[in-house]
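Exercise 3.2. Students should predict the tertiary structure of the chain below and write it as structure tokens, then compare their answer with the key that follows.

Predict this chain's 3D structure.
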Amino acid sequence: MKADAGEARVRVLVVDDDLVIRKGLISLLHGDGRAMVVGEAGDRLRALELAQLQAPDVVLLDLGLPLFEGLHVLAELSRTCKVLVLAGRDVAFDVDQALRVGATGYLVHRQFNAAELITAVMATAQGRAHLSPGAITALAAKLRSARPLRAGAPRSGRVGELSRRELEIMDHIARGRSNPEIAKTLFLSEKTVKNHVNRIYAKLQVRSRAAAVALWLGAEVDSG
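Answer key:
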């Protein structure tokens, strides 16, 4: 999908210490047309300098920067920019830490293609969380082990607009269950579950299961 004539493109700063990966990401972003790369950096200091100079809408940040700088630069960048993290793994601790430090989204290498990268960048620019499926699964498992999710539990923001049945279905979605599995568990038809899911998306103002779960988890995990 290309940007319409006259439509402002999302300004992106790409930060990755691997030149090959960095250039690959830039190529993917340029190929879509809705994003405009305003700078690239391979280290923390250059990233912070360009963020101040270019004021990007989104910083695409690889957490694998050397000397464990990833989380430090994430914390600094997230004070003034929306940050979409790229990481090499989907361990719950890593995802949790990134969200707590200030990441808006979290993509895992080899778990996304060009289309999803663009979708994630656009969502991040709008302040909407976007997580790779593996990251969502890891966080959901962490929450389940910490304390059970309960349908109808007090929630804040848009999640609080869901009905009791929608909260119940959202709980199952967060556990990684498909519509047919939810229908069987709740003794509903698949069509009824699908209708509920569509209403959930509308109320949460999201377009995907991943984004819905990310917002749901955001009620439990402080993402800044």
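Discussion points: The chain is about 50% helix and 10% strand. Residues 173 and 209 are 8 Å apart (CA to CA).
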